[in-house]
Design goal:
Strand order of the largest sheet: 1-2
Helix content: 55-70%
Order of helices and strands: HHEEHHHHHHHHHHHHH
Structural class: mainly alpha
Radius of gyration: 22 Å
Shape: globular
């Protein structure tokens, strides 16, 4: 993603209504990805956790939006300080920005760039929530988001995309968020679950998706919104680079879905809808950093590799014993690493920059830069996220009580249920005093057909 750059006055661009409109549409598409993710995750959990999963994504829209206006945009994209953080007083509260003031070097207003980047900042912590399904207090989650975006996301966004950021200056290529979004979120999810531990019944009880139609709806909306996420990251539509990214997004996603389905057919004997949805998301993740550097044939390779490797990676949680509820580590962390590193192999030097990968005569130089970016973001996010979770766990507590987790986090945290099977039309059951006779238990939800989860 190109950061703001300074141009000579004689070459200063003028506001483009076309690019401005294009970027506002892309911003809306990226905003759609957060509720799409909520549906995707919401369908993958059990019935008793559906609303909590939806809310863990939706609350990010509220918290991160406010923080972004107050200081987040300034920290991520303000004037560089020491190559690690930004700060511009005019960006605080978005109060010193002119209505038609342009983002340096581009033909779109600063406000448009700020709102586009805001949607990235909203989505990233929401991705983490899938690793923590079924067991985190909602208040603790909201506080974790507040702290995490402040000390992890905003600085990392500056490293990767901000003018003067050390990874940007090194020449690390991350077109739309392989490091800043997906590795960042995946490593954070791993750090938190290593602190809070496993769900009750992990590796013992069946924890199948309760609604595969919701999963497929969420995956389809994510695919749709991802065109804004990726193609919009060139911040304009004048030179064809965004068009290449659009094509590569479609191509890599299709290849990854087919590769995942092929792997699970060979390994497990079935083509599953969950596999198709997960494979598509793996392809979207992997092409995010690479799509502006590779050709469409390269995008097929990126997607196919990601589809197979991520399908294998989701089973690692059973081998190593970490409870990544909805495969955030296996898809987002692993997919982000794959896409970021493959830039160093498949970059053609003829799209977003002249940097070439190993297979196009560029040697190991770009691959080395990509590896530094991957390792730096992974390590920083993993360690800091674990420390934040540990601090919260030791103070206000991160997890709900075991009994509440077993009975269902939706009732405990939100006083509602996702589905009413009583026919009465109500949501939550009324609370009774400890001395009142207990109300009859509602009929249990009908059992869903067994849907196999793809595990290596």
């Amino acid at each position: 993603m190109p950061p703001g750059i300074t141009t000579l006055a004689a070459d200063a661009p003028t506001l483009s209504a076309a690019n401005t409109g294009f970027m506002l549409i892309c911003s809306a598409l990226v905003m759609l990805m957060t509720p799409a993710l909520a549906f995707f995750y919401g369908g993958m959990v059990r019935v008793k956790s559906t609303l909590n999963m939806l809310m863990m994504s939706f609350i990010s829209l509220g918290i991160v939006t406010v923080l972004w206006v107050l200081y987040g945009f300034s920290l991520a994209f303000g004037t560089d300080t020491g190559s690690v953080i930004g700060w511009s007083q005019d960006f605080v509260g978005l109060s010193g920005i002119g209505v038609t003031e342009l983002w340096d070097g581009y033909t779109i207003p600063v406000y448009v760039f700020a709102v586009f980047q805001l949607m990235f900042a909203v989505l990233t912590p929401a991705l983490i929530s899938g690793a923590l399904a079924d067991r985190v207090k909602f208040t603790s989650w909201a506080l974790f988001i507040t702290l995490w975006v402040t000390v992890v996301y905003f600085p990392v966004a500056h490293w990767v995309w901000g003018a003067g950021g050390w990874l940007f200056e090194m020449g690390v290529i991350d077109f739309a968020g392989g490091t800043a979004v997906h590795i960042n979120a995946g490593a954070a999810g791993l750090g938190v679950i290593l602190v809070i531990g496993k769900r009750v019944g992990f590796k013992k009880d069946p924890m199948r998706p309760h609604s595969l139609p919701l999963v497929m709806l969420g995956a389809g909306l994510l695919w749709f919104g991802w065109f804004g996420f990726n193609a919009g990251s060139w911040l304009g539509n004048d030179d064809g680079v965004g068009a290449v990214m659009f094509v590569n997004t479609q191509v890599a996603t299709a290849a990854a879905m087919l590769a995942w389905l092929g792997y699970e057919k060979l390994r497990h004997g079935s083509f599953t809808t969950l596999g198709a949805a997960s494979g598509a998301v793996a392809g979207l993740v992997a092409i995010t950093p690479a799509g502006g550097a590779v050709s469409p044939l390269g995008a097929i390779a990126v997607g196919a590799i990601a589809g197979v490797v991520c399908a294998m990676a989701v089973g690692l949680k059973y081998k190593f014993g970490y409870d990544d509820s909805l495969d955030v580590v296996g898809v987002h962390l692993v997919g982000g690493v794959i896409g970021s590193l493959l830039v160093g192999l498949f970059a053609t030097g003829g799209v977003q920059s002249d940097a070439k990968g190993l297979f196009y005569g560029g040697g190991f130089d770009q691959l080395g830069k990509q590896a530094v970016g991957v390792l730096a973001v992974l390590a920083y996010s993993l360690v800091v996220s674990a420390l934040l979770a540990l601090a919260l766990d030791k103070t206000i507590g991160m997890r709900v009580d075991e009994d509440d987790e077993v009975s269902g986090i939706d009732q405990v945290e939100h006083a509602e249920t996702a589905y009413d099977f009583s026919g009465a039309g109500g949501g939550a059951a009324p609370r009774t005093s400890s001395h009142a006779p207990a109300a009859p238990a509602a009929p249990a939800a009908p059992a869903t057909p067994a849907n196999k989860k793809v595990d290596a």
